[in-house]
Amino acid sequence: MPDLSRDVVIVGAGVTGLTAARRLRRAGLSVLVLEARDRVGGRLWTNSIDGQLYEIGGQWVSPDQTALIETLDELGLDTYSRYREGESVYIGADGVTHRYVGATFPASESTQQEFDRLVALMDELTAEVDPASPWEHPNAAEYDRISFRQWLSEQTDDEETIENIALFIADAMLTKPAHSFSLLQALLMAASAGSFSHLVDADFILDKRVVGGLQQVPLRLAAELDDDVVLGAAVDTIEWTDDSVRIVSSSAQLTVTARAAIVAVAPNLQAVIAYEPPLPRLRHQALQHQSLGLVIKVHATYPTPFWRSDGLSGTAFSPYQLVHEVYDNTNHGETQGTLVGFVSDEKADGVFSLDADERKAEVLASLAAYLGPQALEPTVYYESDWAAEEWTRGAYASSFDLGGLTRYGALQLEPVGPIRFGSSDVAGHGYQHVDGGIRVGWRLADEIIDDLQQHTTPHQGALT
């Protein structure tokens, strides 16, 4: 079994690990990136399904994601705007389909007023929260002990308002029921995007896409690293002392000795690695209080974007539908039309109990409720099921249970000896987005550069 030597070894060839590797290399340090999958990109994956190109994972770029935008510019990647012309669709609790324009969904006047009031209240609370350290808010302990759903119920008795406010945090972002995470976790989600209003505004948060797919970011980053990215290299063990690590990958039949390590995978995957000696007890506890949500990303392609000729933008949402949100996801330059929709948390639980044909029928019926019977007959249909993917096991990012963010939030950012941990799951700005993953990669690389520059010379045999 080959025993390699580098300054830094990185576990995970997602955007965080590759961004960190690139920054470390540019600082003159040698690196090796180990990836369990047979591809780079982690939760970014652009793939052809039955001849149709789909963004299986993350895909959108919003104006506040300056780290991602900077990286796209550096890599020479172009973007294009999501199609949004025409009317949007909302289905209320009564099952009636409403077409509308503008930012305000068509509900009763009292519901609209309550919705606007709670959005303003959420924006006010969000402005007080630093996404890099939400546990430092003066009321953090109080906010972290009440579920988001309970807090909403204490603010209003308008159920339609509650369901719609919850949708933007619970269904659309954390992909967990609103009773399962805290108000503080919800405020972190909103603060990471700049405001709760940004999460409500699809034209902001889902602004642009990358021509050819967002996975080009990790693909191009990996190309800069040449042979220092090893695929099919699941890490079994990390042996560590105060100033060195030895990583074993039996699947790749190699070991790597390094001065520092970055474990650039989601918290739920950190726990599948054996550490010798074991991680400190509170780190073990923290990992048991974090989990990913559950979502099915549904792709449906049609001969034409038929909804456009009907005066619809393809944007639709409802907390009462199986598919809680739908968007026109037609690729740049294509004449056929593609819709993307999402089924999350407890609704996903329900349809996963059905066989594939039954599930497809239920999902397409929900799309048809928004956009008409033509939605029932796609030429290509695909479900992104990240929970079933061995090296992901959920979506889109991990979040804490009640009380966990204040108890363990700061701890997750601390190194253990020469090992640092990070991914978009622990980002402040850009939390659970590619932008956050890039920011975390920069931070971890800079911390290691500062640390190693204060100590001994690079490893013998390092590629500098």
Commentary on this structure:
Helix 5 packs antiparallel against helix 6. The protein has helices at 15-26, 66-75, 109-127, 140-144, 148-155, 159-174, 183-192, 196-200, 202-205, 216-224, 267-270, 281-288, 306-309, 345-352, 356-371, 404-408, 434-453, and strands at residues 3-11, 31-34, 46-49, 52-55, 60-61, 79-81, 87-91, 97-100, 208-210, 229-230, 237-240, 245-249, 254-263, 274-276, 290-293, 295-302, 312-317, 325-328, 337-344, 380-384, 395-400, 419-421. It is 35% helix and 23% strand. The radius of gyration is 22 Å and the shape is globular. Among the domains are: 3-44 and 215-279 and 416-453, FAD/NAD(P)-binding domain (3-Layer(bba) Sandwich), CATH 3.50.50; 45-63 and 77-103 and 201-210 and 295-393, Alpha-Beta Complex (Polyamine Oxidase, Chain A, domain 2), CATH 3.90.660. With 464 residues, it is α/β, with parallel strands linked by helices. Residues 458-464 have low confidence and may be disordered. The protein is built from 17 helices and 22 strands.
Q: Could you name the key traits of this structure?
A:
FAD/NAD-bd_sf, Flavin_MAO, single chain, 17 helices, eight-stranded mixed sheet, disordered C terminus, 464 residues, Polyamine Oxidase, Chain A, domain 2, 35% helix, oxidoreductase, Amino_oxidase, alpha/beta, FAD/NAD(P)-binding domain, 23% strand, seven-stranded mixed sheet
